[in-house]
Amino acid sequence: MIFDVNSIRQDFPNLHQTVNGKPLVYLDNAASTHKPQSVIEAVRKFYSEYNANVHRALYRYATEATEAYEASRDKVARLINAPDRRSIIFTSGTTESINLIAYAWGRHNLGPGDEILVTEMEHHSNLIPWQLTARDTGATLKFIPITADGALDLSNPDQYFTARTKLVAFIQQSNVFGTINPAKQIIEMAHQVGALTIVDAAQSVPHHQVDMTELDCDFLAFSGHKMLGPTGIGVLYGKPELLEAMEPFLGGGEMIQSVTMEKSTWNEIPWKFEAGTPKIAQVIGLGTAIDYITAIGFEAIVKYEKELTDYALSALSALEGITIHGNAHQRGPVISFNVKDVHPHDLAQFLDQEGIAIRAGHHCTQPIMQKLGVPATSRASFSLYNTKAEIDILIESIANTIRFMTG
Ligand code: 7TS
After folding, report:
1. Is-above-0.70 flag for pTM?
2. Cα-to-centroid distance, 231 and ligand 1 (Å)
3. CATH assignment of 40-294, among 3.30.70.20, 3.40.640.10, 1.10.10.350, 3.40.30.10
C-alpha cells in the first residue's frame, strides 16, 4: 500500500474539526490518538446489530459477539507475533495490565531480600504499582538511572542486575524523550540473573513492530486508545506457563471452572484473568484498529513518523530559547521541550487559541521532571495522520508566542 497521508486523514472524522475557527492541529498522540471511521463503525455495529454478552449463551447474536471478541484476540497475537493466543489477556489498559502482574504475580512471589528493578524513565503506571508491591511484600525497589541525553545508563549493569533481582519492569519507548530503549538487551540481562521482565509497551506497540518471539519478555502491556482503538481496552501479554502458574487477579464470573460455597477452581488462561463481563465493544474496536494499522504496515509508519519527527526536531531547534529534552539515537515520534521564559502551560494555552493541541505538564513522570529540574515540559507527539504542514503551524505559533511573551 502506498502511504498517502491525505487519504489517511480522510478516515479520521475528528481531524476535521475546528478550534476557535482554526483547523485542529492535533499533536497529543502520546496521550491518546483519534480513531478511524472503521473503528467507530465497528463499535456502532456491535451495539446496533449484534449486541450480546460473550461466552455464555447459544443464541445467534451471542455467538456472533463471542466470535468477534475472540477474533480480536487472534489479531492482537498476530500483531505482536505471540505464538500462543492464550498469552493475550484483555484489560482496561496498560495501567491495569501492570497492576495485574503486581497483584497476581508480585504479591505471591516477592518478599524481603528480593529486588524489583525499574528505571528512572517510567511512567507512573510502571512505578507506583511496584512501590506498592515493595511496601506490601518487603521487597526493595531499585532504579536504572537516566543520562543527560534521556537514555538509560546501562554502563554498570552488575550494580542493578543481581542474584536478588526478581523482576525488571521497564518502558520500551519513553513518553517524554521518545527514547527507544534496548529492550532485548535488558531482557537478556534480566534473564541472566534469573529475573522476570515486564515491558511497558504503551508507546511502542502503536509505532513499530514489537515481536514477542524476538524479545522473549515474560510480560508486556499496552493500551488500545494510543493505537487508534477505543478507550477502556488494553492488553497484557504473558508467557502461558507463567500465566498458568499465577493466582487469579479479580474473582467473579468467567474466570472460574467450578464453584461450591467453599471453594472454586479456575478457568483456563486467558479467561482466568478476564473476570466479569469483558469490554466487548472495545475489544472488537481494537481488532479493527489493528486491521487498519496492519493494512498500512509498520515499515511505512516508521518511515513516515521518523520523517515528521526529524522535520519537527530541526525546525524546533532552530528557534531561539528552546531546550529539547532527550537526544537518543533511536527515538519515536515524541518531542519534549521548554521555551525560555515561557511556562509550558502558557504556551499550551496560546497554542490552543490557534487550534493546536499539545500536552504541557509532567506527563505522569514526575521523577523525570525532578531530574531535568523543571516543573513541567511542553510535548508534541505525532501519529501517522499528522503532516509537515501541521508542524509548520506549530513552529510558527511557538515563534509568535515567544515574541508575545518575551517582547
Ligand atoms: N505507560 C506509558 C509509557 C504511557 O505513556 C502511558 C500513558 C501509560 C503507561 C498509561 O496508559 P493508560 O492507557 O493505562 O493510561 N501516557 C500518557 C501520556 O504520555 N500522556 O497522557 C497519557
Report:
1. yes
2. 12
3. 3.40.640.10
